[in-house]
């Protein structure tokens, strides 16, 4: 959604809500809000009761905060709390560590965590937000912020959310299928042209959930995620339409909101670390698996989002039992993901490269809305590691399909 549309809709929503609040405060009868008969209430609220909204100005500000939430269920829960006269805890802003000031304190020998300026507010406490403040709100809650709750906790704990994109490519053309998969430690397995055909279906399922908030008192979050990618020979009726490949990737990671200036007007918004297991669930000569620990960052240059990662392999097997001892020669030691909005849609991609072997991969994606809740999706891939069974085989593929808008993830 374009920022101007977002701002106009948000302005209209806030205006309607505030008019209702004003009408009720002035004349509850004309506002057509049914009167509620008073009931006996305890003089002292429970110790765990949420704090109450004490004035209309504060209620209007919280109304804006609720309206800015992008998750439907969370936004409704926020409005429900506000309607009951309670301050929704979901609207509490998160602190961002100011890296430069924190580093300076460490160099001076008096280390302390310094947070970025928290005085900036979307709305003043005693008046409605201006159009400029709404523009600031649209800029603040960027795709990176919404994906990892960098400015506020947009959902509660253990609620399924988009991680990597969730899509279906009914037609995926693999120009040069890997019909002879093998590794230095696994024997070659051969497939004929009929057993492994060029057209197939490709789809991906991916979710994450927040497991803990405010780790170490710095507003860091702990996440768990799961991604499954599958290649299905759905058009191969002569061989019972088998699945050609599965990739399973459970992971756990931590994100920390930060604030630092980058060259050319960029901003560093997040630092993180995690670990991921990647395997295909097969046995014998078709088995492939490895584990990685990684560091990552989230950066923004205007509408451009960039997320680099650096990883190191975690070896838990001896060389003889290793399914793919040379996998880093092809996957390298990290990747860079990017996202940029174009004409109402998004262009995104992933780049991997190992300079010592001159091997890697690039994937380019284009997503554009085509209807309510769904977008068209085109994917291009070239290089190594399209699937883990193909980690050491160079392939080229193109697919056309759809992606669910509510499950687009960041990429």
Major sheet size, sense and barrel closure: 12 strands, antiparallel, barrel
Strand content bin: 35-45%
The residue fraction in helices comes out at 10-25%
> What global shape is seen?
globular
Within the largest sheet, what's the order of strands? 3-4-5-6-7-8-9-10-11-12-13-14
Helical/strand content category: alpha+beta
**SSE string, helices as H and strands as E:** HHHEHHHEEEEEEEEHEEEEE
Query: What is the average per-residue confidence, as pLDDT, rounded to a whole number?
Result: 81
Any low-confidence stretches, pLDDT <50, length ≥5? Answer: 16-36, 39-45, 119-127
Number of strands: 14
Oligomeric state of shown chains:
single chain
Number of helices: 7
From the alpha carbons, calculate the radius of gyration and give it in angstroms.
25 Å
Report how far apart the termini are: 16 Å
Topology:
Layout: H1 3-26, H2 56-67, H3 72-83, E1 97-98, H4 99-107, H5 131-140, H6 143-148, E2 161-162, E3 167-174, E4 199-215, E5 220-232, E6 243-262, E7 266-279, E8 289-301, E9 304-314, H7 327-331, E10 334-342, E11 345-354, E12 359-371, E13 374-384, E14 394-404
Parallel strand pairs: 1-6
Antiparallel strand pairs: 2-4, 3-4, 3-14, 4-5, 5-6, 6-7, 7-8, 8-9, 9-10, 10-11, 11-12, 12-13, 13-14
Provide key terms for this protein.
411 residues; alpha+beta; 19% helix; 37% strand
Briefly say what this structure is.
This protein is 19% helix and 37% strand. About 9% of the residues have low confidence.
Task: Provide a descriptive summary of the structure in words.
The protein is an alpha+beta fold and 411 residues long. Helix content is 19%, strand content 37%. A hairpin with a 2-residue loop joins strand 8 (289-301) and strand 9. The relative contact order is 0.11. Mean pLDDT is 81; it is low at 16-36, 39-45 and 119-127.
């Amino acid at each position: 959604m374009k920022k101007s549309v977002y701002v106009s809709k948000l302005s209209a929503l806030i205006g309607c809500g505030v008019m209702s609040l004003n009408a009720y405060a002035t004349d509850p009868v004309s506002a057509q809000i049914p009167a509620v008969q008073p009931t006996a209430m305890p003089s002292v609220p429970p110790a765990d009761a949420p704090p109450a909204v004490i004035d209309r100005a504060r209620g209007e500000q919280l109304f804006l905060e609720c309206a800015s939430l992008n998750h439907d269920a969370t936004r409704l829960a926020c409005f429900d709390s506000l309607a009951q006269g309670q301050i929704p805890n979901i609207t509490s802003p998160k602190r961002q560590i100011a890296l430069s000031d924190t580093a300076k304190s460490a160099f001076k020998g008096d280390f302390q965590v310094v947070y970025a300026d928290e005085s900036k507010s979307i709305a003043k406490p005693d008046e409605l937000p201006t159009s400029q403040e709404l523009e600031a709100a649209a800029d603040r809650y960027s795709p990176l912020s919404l994906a990892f709750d960098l400015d506020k906790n947009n959902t509660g704990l253990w609620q399924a959310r988009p991680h990597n994109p969730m899509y279906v490519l009914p037609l995926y053309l693999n120009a040069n299928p890997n019909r002879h998969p093998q590794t230095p430690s696994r024997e070659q397995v051969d497939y004929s042209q009929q057993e492994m055909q060029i057209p197939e279906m490709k789809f991906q399922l991916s979710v994450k959930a927040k497991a803990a908030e405010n780790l170490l008192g710095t507003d860091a979050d702990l996440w768990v995620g799961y991604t499954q990618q599958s290649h299905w020979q759905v058009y191969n009726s002569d061989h019972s339409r088998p699945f050609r490949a599965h990739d399973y990737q459970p992971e756990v990671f931590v994100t920390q909101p930060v604030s630092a200036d980058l060259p050319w007007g960029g901003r560093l918004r997040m630092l993180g670390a995690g670990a991921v297991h990647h395997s295909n669930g097969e046995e014998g000569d078709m088995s492939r698996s490895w584990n990685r620990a990684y560091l990552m960052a989230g950066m923004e240059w205007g509408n451009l989002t960039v997320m680099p990662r650096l990883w190191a392999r975690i070896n838990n097997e001896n060389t003889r039992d290793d399914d793919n001892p040379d996998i880093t020669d092809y996957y390298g030691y990290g990747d860079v993901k990017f996202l940029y909005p174009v004409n109402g849609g998004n262009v995104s991609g992933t780049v991997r490269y190992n300079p010592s072997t001159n091997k890697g991969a690039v994937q380019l994606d284009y997503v554009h809305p085509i209807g309510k809740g769904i977008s068209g999706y085109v994917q291009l891939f070239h290089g190594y590691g399209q699937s883990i069974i193909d980690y050491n085989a160079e392939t080229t593929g193109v697919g056309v399909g759809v992606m669910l808008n509510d499950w687009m993830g960041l990429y």
